[in-house]
Write a structure and sequence with these properties.
By secondary structure, the protein is mainly alpha-helical. Helix content is about 40%, strand content about 10%. It contains 6 helices and 5 strands. The longest helix is centred in the N-terminal third of the chain and has 18 residues, at about 35-50.
């Protein structure tokens, strides 16, 4: 596969888009523009490589269904922001870090090892069959990124809150 060179102006354009999306969603990007643009270039490279924007700080499998939890914004962003003030790669930061009243500290990896991720998927699929939500007229879908809930036949193509794609939704128990 031939890779197209990622141009600085493309990174700058994507940077501005992410800044707006972050602000609109109540989030903040890291204020170190050079650092943030390097992460964005990594997201863009991963999109070329795999067809999706896997976190540049994690090892992606190249199989989207196995990497849904690490497609930016990853499933771990909000817990990391709540507990540490930054996500794992520090693309997203808390207001305290953005304003300089707090410094970024290392964020431990929350992603379970590959073997455990497989077991979690099996447990989740099993538990869906015994869910009390199953008695509702429509299934309830939850965005794994921001927690948005909706009751409908299928999840929305794009989350109206955080703009995550349909694949980032799970059936809510």
């Amino acid at each position: 596969m031939a890779f197209i060179e990622i141009k600085p102006e493309d990174v700058e354009t994507f940077y501005r888009i992410l800044q707006k999306e972050a602000k609109d969603g109540g989030y903040q990007l890291n204020t170190d523009a050079e650092f943030t643009k390097n992460l964005i270039a990594g997201l863009m490279k991963n999109e070329q490589r795999y067809g999706y924007r896997a976190c540049p700080c994690r090892l992606a499998s190249g199989k989207k269904e196995q990497d849904l939890d690490i497609i930016c914004p990853c499933d771990y962003r909000d817990p990391d922001l709540n507990d540490y003030g930054a996500c794992y790669c520090a693309l997203y930061v808390s207001e305290e870090i953005a304003t300089g009243s707090k410094t970024i500290a290392p964020v431990p990896e929350r992603r379970p090892p590959r073997a455990e991720r497989g077991n979690q998927a099996v447990k989740q699929a099993f538990s869906l069959t015994s869910s009390p939500v199953a008695a509702l007229a429509f299934p309830v879908w939850r965005c794994k990124v921001c927690g948005y809930l909706c009751a409908r036949d299928q999840p929305p193509d794009i989350c109206p809150i955080c703009k995550a794609t349909k694949e980032r939704f799970e059936r809510f128990m």
